[in-house]
Amino acid sequence: YKKEYLMFNDDIQGTAATVLAGLYGAMKVQGLAPEDIKNQKILIAGAGSAGSGVVLTIRNAINKRYGLSLEEASRRFYIVDANGLISKSRSNLVEMEDQFHDLSSFAVDDSEMEGMSLLDTIKTVKPNILIGLSACGGLFNKEVLEAMNESDTPPIIFPLSNPTSRSECTAAQAQAATGGRAIFASGSPFPDVEIDGDMIASSQCN
Known about the structure:
Elements: H1 10-29, E1 42-45, H2 49-66, H3 70-74, E2 77-81, E3 84-85, H4 93-96, H5 103-106, H6 118-125, E4 129-132, H7 142-148, E5 156-159, H8 171-178, E6 183-186, E7 193-195, E8 198-200, E9 203-204
Parallel strand pairs: 1-2, 1-4, 4-5, 5-6, 6-9
Antiparallel strand pairs: 2-3, 7-8
């Protein structure tokens, strides 16, 4: 019915709009301008419909608002699924585009990076932003969170899978592993976290 009806999918457009707004908020927390989102390296865990909506929406913002070409904007993303980092050498890349529009433009060129684990991807590409849309509870373990904390700027960590049992990490885990530096927003609500006497807000953006 795509020629007859305007459709809104909350899992795709709804989540994507909320995540983009959350990232703009994270830029502000870091003292950056909204357009600085174009300079971030963004790692997405999960290559399903929600992941596609988030990636495509952020890319559209970077491309249409802040002047990067589609190719340049696409290179700001790294996407990991159950089989590891997605590269252009992924054997079923074309078939995966049935669920993730234009996935091939986000796949990394380096075939040697194909299937790289989430932790190794973080250590290699050093992303500023980690977004979980994997429905894999606990995926962002202590090692992953500590690797994200090696960035110069406070790491932006968004474990967005629902319900709580499927969240990639909790707010307490994120703040404990980063010494309270993480800019955190989740899909399921988590209480604020106290670190060394300071109360750190736990936001929600899904």
